């Protein structure tokens, strides 16, 4: 390693290292697919070829064809339309959970990492206890207790993932807090609040963004799983998980009824995981790659 | 000698943990609103009927008395009875535990057999075929819904090819071949998700170790690549890998609920979930304790593995 | 003394972010049996990379693009990977800079010693361990049989360096490359380790040692000959006595002038103006010219070639011809 003599340690805040943004194929691909899915979900009522609930008893069990690109189910309902509407639920739950966990995780992590000491302990001990609990049991129990509305689902997922968000934020804050530019800003008389919000937070947010992307994928999976088990979205609300549960009975005769919803789930989750991987490459190539 | 003392110390530490766990489990299930008596009687519930059942099941006693009684019974082997069927919990456990254990073992075995060599190969030659395969596995494996993979496998392998059963479980003692066949698809389903995480961790850990100075020095000694990678690098990379395997084992032992449901396997997972929903306290408490005990055992095994692999840990 | 190693025009380049950096540039020198040749220069001049290039132990983004390395009549650069592997550790070996990171923390030192013997000498484990104990004793480690089962973290830095040296000597190599072997050690341990090198040199007259360092004091104590490196090139080479008493290249002169002992408290410690050039953007002509106190018109235009000043003493500087 060549070290030039006389390096000056920077005391200027690194203005959001975006200038070194490297292109990542993974991130671009992930974002494009995710954006397409969000678009499809938002405008589902307009793009769907048919009303997802309208039954056509003249056309049950149709394999994929021009009129019904994903085929029809036993009630003659168009599978593609149902998938598009199912996406709405998935993405809604996903967005809600991520938003909630960020709303909870960012302040908690910031406080724990920035203030340290007793506050840190106060926040982190319950988080550690929460993490030790097997997630699937926790979700099932909470869902069984609180009921099965979409909002409850969002809360449940956010709560289960909260410890990870808090930990990630806290670790990032600890790392940034130790950097010289923070001392420099403090020496110039910045108050704690200003320091935390203007200097520490923007530079610590990167790993949290990555986690948010991962959580989006996980939330979609959990919603689908719980709906599949009957503990999530209830009929007649559309849900990809529900479609799979219902489809099991008729899958011998109409495999497309289970193939496409599942593919749809996988595509959505994949796009967010791709984005997360790409973000990792771009924001911090030296990060712990898991 | 350091190893024995290390083990003994860790074992002693598990006792308070187990205690704490028993309290948490006891309280948690009772925090869930819902009355077991209500569940049992359903629509035929009358205040007198509910009270009678409360007396029967000892639910009218003060909380701490219930706890002490339960704990006393538990450590002497009496785990109570299922509230509804009155089947002794221990019988239920004896039926279900082997299924979960065997499924866990098979899934873990499959996962390790795929993920470990692939991850090592991927780390050794970044950008090569193994690396790309590892990335693909890592990405798809964590994106695929496990219940959907299960359904796909059932659809195309079991029903399509007809060589494997689509559901049900045959005990090992009955027929080894049938037993393995009934668990193969479930194990593959679980292994996909496990392998995805494991291959990522293996690759990351190996890649990091391969960059270390002592690996460069080992190469400077002129040793064969095989020794450099499989003896030196792998040994030093193993701790994070073992950590992941330990965590995953803990998760598996808790019963893979969804896979059990889809393949209709009588395992611990579905037992626990159903019992929770029925407010079947004895069953929930007993299974939670058993799962907790197995978790503790896995943690202990992981710690032992750490100590064996890292000489510095032994010295403490 | 016969010549063991003939390095001719060794050139190594690194590729980063699409650009290439020529870190070692047409380096040429000989190493004879029984001698210690010092390779001295500031950090970043390419001396460590030269050492690694001799063993062909470069990272994946580096390439040896030109040159020949003749070890006892065979060009190492033309060897296949497998052939080179067999030569590495047995006929040419290297001591790394930081003993704290050279040994694998997960294996006992006896194992790490035995490995080399098993690989290159075909010994079985018991025989190799016996020899390992003998080697440990020869580098000054007491009760070696018991120490074989110990792990690296149970040894101090100085002792670990001795173990590393023992490993490199295990197969009696013709060439020993030592990359800053004392830099990472405490001052008191440095002296001990240097003494060890001197003993080794006296005992093994058939081995040549290439000692890479930035410390002129070490050069003075140990080396017979020295090559001065700057910006990837050898700018001066000769006997230690000649270099220290009649340094020809302005860079060598400046280096010597900046040794604290020499300055003898006469005012400020003379430092060399400027910084070491970045290998991706070397100055034109003579690479030292921006910092040279004797620079003149030709310097930025012409690349100086080595000129013989007296038998065994060369300097690449336009002051002495082109």
Explain what you see.
- The complex is a heterotrimer of chains A (290), B (316) and C (322).
- Chain A is an all-alpha fold and 290 residues long.
- Chain A has ten helices and no strands.
- The two termini of chain A are 27 Å apart.
- The N terminus of chain A is likely disordered.
- Chain B is an all-alpha fold and 316 residues long.
- In chain B, α6 crosses α8, α7 packs across α8 and α11 crosses α12.
- By secondary structure, chain C is α/β, with parallel strands linked by helices.
- Chain C folds into two domains: 192 residues, 3-Layer(aba) Sandwich (Rossmann fold), CATH 3.40.50.300; 69 residues, DNA polymerase, domain 1.
- Chain C is 33% helix and 25% strand.
- Chain C is built from twelve helices and twelve strands.
- Chain C is globular.
- The two termini of chain C are 30 Å apart.
- Classes of the chains: A mainly alpha (290), B mainly alpha (316), C alpha/beta (322).
- At the A-C interface, loops of A face loops of C.
Number of helices of chain A: 10
Helix percent of chain A reads 55-70%
Average pLDDT of chain C, rounded to a whole number, is 91
**What is the H/E order of chain A?**
HHHHHHHHHH
CATH superfamily of the largest domain in chain C: P-loop containing nucleotide triphosphate hydrolases
Helix content of chain C: 25-40%
Backbone CA Rg of chain C: 20 Å
Largest interface: A-B, 33 and 35 residues
Shape of chain A: elongated
Question: What attributes characterize this protein structure?
Answer:
heterotrimer, B: 316 residues, mainly alpha, 79% helix, C: 322 residues, alpha/beta, Rossmann fold, DNA polymerase, domain 1, 12 strands
TL;DR?
The complex is a heterotrimer of chains A (290), B (316) and C (322). By secondary structure, chain A is mainly α.
What's the layout of helices and strands?
The complex is a heterotrimer of chains A (290), B (316) and C (322).
Chain A: H1 25-42, H2 44-47, H3 79-115, H4 117-132, H5 135-146, H6 150-177, H7 180-187, H8 192-229, H9 240-250, H10 256-283
Chain B: H1 2-31, H2 36-41, H3 47-57, H4 63-75, H5 89-124, H6 129-143, H7 146-161, H8 176-210, H9 213-220, H10 225-253, H11 257-263, H12 268-278, H13 281-309, H14 311-314
Helix pairs in contact in B: 1-13, 5-6, 5-8, 5-10, 6-8, 7-8, 7-11, 8-10, 10-13, 11-12, 12-13
Chain C: E1 3-16, E2 19-32, E3 36-40, H1 47-55, E4 62-71, E5 74-75, H2 81-87, E6 92-95, H3 99-102, H4 109-121, H5 125-138, H6 144-147, H7 157-169, E7 175-179, H8 187-203, E8 208-213, H9 216-222, E9 225-230, E10 233-239, H10 240-245, H11 250-257, H12 260-263, E11 307-310, E12 313-315
Parallel strand pairs in C: 3-8, 3-9, 6-7, 7-8
Antiparallel strand pairs in C: 1-2, 1-4, 4-5, 9-10, 10-12, 11-12
């Amino acid at each position: 390693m060549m070290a030039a003599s006389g390096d000056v340690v920077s005391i200027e805040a690194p203005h959001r290292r975006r200038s070194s943004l490297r292109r990542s194929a993974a991130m671009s691909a992930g974002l494009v697919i995710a954006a397409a899915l969000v678009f499809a979900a938002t405008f589902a009522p307009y793009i769907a070829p048919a009303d997802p609930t309208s039954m056509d008893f003249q056309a049950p069990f149709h394999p994929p064809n021009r009129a019904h690109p994903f085929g029809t189910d036993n009630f003659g309902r168009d599978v593609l339309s149902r998938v598009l509407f199912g996406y709405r639920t998935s993405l809604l739950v996903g967005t809600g959970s991520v938003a909630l966990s960020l709303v909870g995780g960012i302040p908690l992590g910031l406080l724990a990492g920035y203030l340290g000491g007793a506050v840190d302990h106060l926040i982190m001990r319950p988080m550690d206890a929460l993490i030790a609990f097997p997630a699937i049991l926790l979700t099932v129990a909470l869902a069984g207790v609180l009921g099965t509305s979409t909002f409850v689902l969002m809360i449940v997922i956010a709560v289960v993932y909260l410890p990870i968000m808090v930990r990630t934020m806290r670790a990032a804050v600890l790392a940034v807090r130790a950097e010289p530019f923070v001392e420099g800003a403090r020496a110039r008389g910045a108050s704690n609040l200003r320091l935390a919000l203007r200097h520490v937070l923007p530079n610590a947010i990167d790993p949290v963004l990555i986690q948010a992307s991962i959580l989006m994928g996980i939330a979609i999976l959990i919603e689908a799983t719980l709906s599949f088990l009957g503990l999530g979205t209830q009929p007649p609300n559309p849900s990809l998980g529900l479609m799979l549960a219902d489809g099991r009975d008729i899958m011998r005769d109409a495999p497309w009824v289970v193939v496409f919803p599942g593919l749809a789930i996988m595509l959505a989750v994949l796009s967010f995981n791709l984005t997360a991987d790409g973000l990792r490459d771009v924001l911090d190539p030296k990060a712990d790659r898991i | 000698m350091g190893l024995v003392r290390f083990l003994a110390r860790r074992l002693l530490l598990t006792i308070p943990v187990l205690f704490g766990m028993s309290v948490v489990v006891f309280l948690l299930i009772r925090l869930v609103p819902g009355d077991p008596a209500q569940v049992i009687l359903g629509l035929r519930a009358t205040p007198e009927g509910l009270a009678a059942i409360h007396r029967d099941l000892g639910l009218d006693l003060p909380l701490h008395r219930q706890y002490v009684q339960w704990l006393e019974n538990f450590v002497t082997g009496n785990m109570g009875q299922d509230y509804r069927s009155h089947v002794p919990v221990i019988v239920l456990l004896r039926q279900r535990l082997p299924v979960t254990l065997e499924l866990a073992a098979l899934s873990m075995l499959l996962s390790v057999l795929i993920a470990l060599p692939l991850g090592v190969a991927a780390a050794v030659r970044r950008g090569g075929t193994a690396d790309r395969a590892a990335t693909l596995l890592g990405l798809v494996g964590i994106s695929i819904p496990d219940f959907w993979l299960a359904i796909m496998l059932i659809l195309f392998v079991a029903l399509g090819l007809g060589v494997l059963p689509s559901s049900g479980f045959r005990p090992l003692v009955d027929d080894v071949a049938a037993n393995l066949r009934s668990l193969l698809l479930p194990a593959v389903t679980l292994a996909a998700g496990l392998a995805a995480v494991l291959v990522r961790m293996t690759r990351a850990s190996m890649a990091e170790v391969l960059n270390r100075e002592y690996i460069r020095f080992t190469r400077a000694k002129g040793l064969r690549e095989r020794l450099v990678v499989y003896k030196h690098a792998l040994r030093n990379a193993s701790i994070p890998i073992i950590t992941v395997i330990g965590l995953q084992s803990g998760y598996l032992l808790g019963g893979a609920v969804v896979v059990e449901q889809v393949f209709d396997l009588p395992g611990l997972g579905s037992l626990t979930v159903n019992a929770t929903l029925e407010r079947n306290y004895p069953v929930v408490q007993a299974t939670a304790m058993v799962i907790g005990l197995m978790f503790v055992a896995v943690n202990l095994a992981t710690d032992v593995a750490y100590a064996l692999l890292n000489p510095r840990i032994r010295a403490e | 003394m016969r010549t063991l190693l003939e390095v001719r025009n060794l050139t190594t380049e690194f590729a980063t972010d699409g650009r290439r950096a020529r870190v070692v540039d047409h380096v040429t020198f000989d190493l004879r049996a029984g001698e210690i040749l010092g390779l001295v220069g500031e950090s970043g001049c390419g001396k460590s990379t030269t050492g690694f290039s001799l063993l062909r132990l470069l990272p994946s983004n580096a390439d040896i693009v030109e040159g020949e390395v003749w070890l006892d009549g065979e060009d190492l650069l033309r060897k296949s990977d497998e052939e080179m592997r067999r030569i590495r550790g047995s006929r040419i070996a290297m001591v790394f800079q930081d003993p704290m990171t050279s040994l694998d923390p997960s294996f006992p030192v006896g194992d790490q010693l035995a490995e080399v013997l098993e690989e290159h000498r075909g010994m079985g484990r018991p025989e190799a361990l016996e020899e390992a104990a003998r080697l440990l004793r020869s580098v000054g480690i007491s009760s070696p049989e018991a120490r074989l089962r110990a792990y690296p973290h149970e040894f101090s830095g100085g002792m670990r360096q001795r173990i590393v040296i023992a490993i490199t000597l295990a197969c009696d190599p013709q060439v020993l490359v030592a990359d800053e072997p004392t830099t990472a050690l405490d001052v008191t341990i440095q002296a001990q380790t240097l003494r060890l090198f001197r003993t080794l040199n006296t005992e093994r007259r058939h081995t040549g040692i290439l000692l890479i360092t930035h410390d002129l004091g070490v050069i003075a104590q140990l080396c017979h000959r020295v090559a001065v490196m700057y910006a990837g090139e050898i700018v001066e080479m000769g006997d230690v006595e000649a270099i220290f008493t009649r340094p020809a290249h302005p860079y060598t002169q400046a280096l010597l002038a900046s040794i604290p002992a020499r300055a003898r408290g006469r005012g400020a410690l003379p430092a060399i103006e400027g910084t070491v050039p970045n290998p991706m953007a070397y100055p034109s002509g003579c690479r030292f010219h921006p910092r040279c106190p004797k620079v003149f018109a030709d310097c930025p235009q012409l690349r100086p070639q080595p000129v013989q000043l007296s038998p065994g003493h060369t300097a690449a500087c336009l002051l002495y011809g082109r």
